[in-house]
Amino acid sequence: MTTLVTGGTGFVASNIVRTLAEQGEQVISFDLNPPSALLRRYIKPWADRVIFIQGDILNQCELDIILEHDIKLIVHAAVFTGLFPNIETGRSKDIIATNVMGTTNVLEVARKLSVQRFLYVSSIAVYGDYQPDQILTEESIPYPRTLYAITKYLSELLVRRYGELHGFPTVSVRLGSPYGPMERVTAHRANQSLLKEWTGNIIRGEPIEVGDRSARRVFSYVRDIAGGIHAILAAPSLSYGVYNISTGEQKTLEEIISALRDLYPGLKITDKPMTGHPQIGNVMEMQRLINDVGFHPRYDLRSGLEEYMSWRRANNFTE
User: Fold this and answer.
1) Which helix (H) or strand (E) covers residue 310, if one does?
2) Is there a contact between 52 and 35 (Cβ–Cβ < 8 Å)?
3) DSSP 8-state class, residue 99
4) 271, exposed or middle or buried, with CB in 10 Å at 0-12, 13-18, 19+?
5) Which residues pair with 146 in a beta bridge?
6) How would you classify the pairing of strands 242-245 and 283-284?
7) Inter-residue contact 260 to 198 (CB < 8 Å)
8) Residue 198 CA to chain centroid, in angstroms?
9) 2-178+220-245 adopts what CATH topology?
């Protein structure tokens, strides 16, 4: 069975490509960018199961090349993140075009292929920053505010309705704060996770800067996120149209520092002035995924950080 992954050379999507190939699946990665040497090393043991096709999801003719392949599943992960205010302001139309019309074009491919399942990769961002409940479930009311979050939620609705109209099963997954291998700055993803920043400091022998150590954050190791997506694709049936995938535990920055110190006793810390109120990251509950699909995360914070740092060192990835 062949699975199409759009945006397959990107951060989360490249981990999806690798996980599917590890599980013996044939994968086609469709992306505006060709695979880098870093990505080719990342998937090298399973490279014979992966085909890279370079193209633009905004060009229906380029996308329709996919129709030549016997694709049964689609994972639509291509996206313009555009979270920084200057990018949101300066490239507003591009964000909307990529995230809405790009999704529509990929849905047209799904319609023509009559796929067995279409999985849309959404985000915790659809819930917004002002949720009254600390625990976010799939029943929490979305409150998207940025163009990125708005287009993500709109795409969820488009995916659901397209599947209803044209007779193919669809599902959306909302990801929570991923970090891990293959995270890097690209033309469509400038914002980076705090753990990428801190592990980069460690690799370069620089101190990490910390403000309010009581601030709480939630991070999810990207390999667990990819594993959850594979489990949803492989499930014989699904009871819901939306699943949260957030495998991280809520930790204070002090607890994260402690985990890093256990791994790297020579860790250097620089205090920076605290501003504003303490940050409390929302926790995304993933009980629906556990109960309905049977997926359980493999990594806790320590094991995720340990594997991520091993990957960084092996690839001399200092970014």
Assistant:
1) helix 301-314
2) yes
3) I
4) exposed
5) none
6) unpaired
7) yes
8) 19
9) Rossmann fold (3.40.50)
Is residue 246 a contact partner of residue 218, using CB atoms and an 8 Å limit? yes
Tens-digit pLDDT string for the chain (319 aa): 899 999 999 999 999 999 999 999 999 999 999 999 999 999 999 999 999 999 999 999 999 999 999 999 999 999 998 888 999 999 999 999 999 999 999 999 999 999 999 999 999 999 997 667 678 999 999 999 999 999 999 999 999 999 999 999 999 999 999 999 999 988 778 789 999 999 999 999 999 988 788 888 889 999 999 999 999 999 999 999 999 999 867 888 999 999 999 988 888 899 876 554 445 567 889 999 999 999 999 999 999 999 999 999 999 999 9
Residue 235, C-beta contacts closer than 8 angstroms, at least 6 positions apart = 292, 293
Report the distance separating Cα 228 and Cα 258, nearest Å: 28
Residues in the chain: 319
Fold of 181-218+248-282+299-314: UDP-galactose 4-epimerase; domain 1 (3.90.25)
Per-position DSSP letters for 33-44, written without gaps between them: SPPPHHHHHHTG
Place of tokens 């044209």: 166
**Domain boundary assignment for the chain:** 2-178+220-245, 181-218+248-282+299-314
**314/319 Cα distance (integer angstroms):** 13
